[in-house]
Amino acid sequence: MRRSALTALLLLPALSFPAWAQTTTQPTTAPKTAAPATVTPAPATDGKTIEAVTATSPRGFSIRMPGGQGWTPLKNVPNTDVAFLNQTVNGLRPTVTVITQDVDPKIKATLADFRDLFSRQLGKDVPSYKLLGEKTTRVSGMPAILWTYSGDGDGGPVRWTQVITLKSNRLFTVTLMTPTGTPADVIDTGREILDSFALTLK
Fold it and tell me: Which residues form the signal peptide (predicted)?
């Protein structure tokens, strides 16, 4: 029962390739599905507005997008709490997404349970899936899994860097997706966004 409940939970957008990332032109909003994060621009300096923004979500996290390098916040993406995207590379757009999911306390699932299920599901759902690296880390003091894997997205070869953590029966999945050929500076700033993720949930 526990495994089937977890498997049902993991048939989720975190494991799917975002269709909106495949387009060469992209609107700044998508159909609204949940309360959005609040995006706060950085303070102005010398009369100029810094492009960096911090997104703070009522779902219990914050994440910061640095200025420059073409990153743009995308509002109201279905089944996604926060999304940032960059300019098209080989028909796909580099993205950073945050997805949260509430976990039934009766399941008593651990981070290790989710890690194992994610791993099995990725092997099934991602063509040419290959795990490139994995380590345990911490996010705001909570245990987390950081891993990198590659495979074929809907539009070509893709590399994902992903953080998974669990707090107060809520699963957080933060994913950086970069198509093959993404410039190094875009990868670096995308990783900066991912690394800025922090938990605010009590």
Answer: 1-21
Cα 43 from chain centroid? 25
pLDDT digits (tens, 9 = 90+) for 109-150: 999 999 999 999 998 889 999 999 999 999 999 999 999 999
Task: Identify the CATH number of the domain in which residue 34 sits.
Answer: 3.40.1000.10
SS3 19: helix
Tally of structural domains, the chain:
1
CA distance linking residue 177 with residue 191, whole number of Å: 10
Q: How far is CA 150 from CA 44, 129, 184, 190, in A?
A: 39, 6, 17, 16
Contact call for residues 201 and 142 (beta carbons, < 8 A): no
Expressed as residue numbers, the domain containing 89 is 2-199
Q: What's the gap between Cα 67 and its chain centre? A: 19
- If DSSP codes are grouped into helix, strand and coil, which group holds residue 156? strand
Please answer whether residues 144 and 137 qualify as being in contact, where contact means their C-beta atoms are separated by less than 8 angstroms: yes
**DSSP letter (8 states) at residue 125:** H
Point out which residues pair with 170 in neighbouring strands: 102, 167
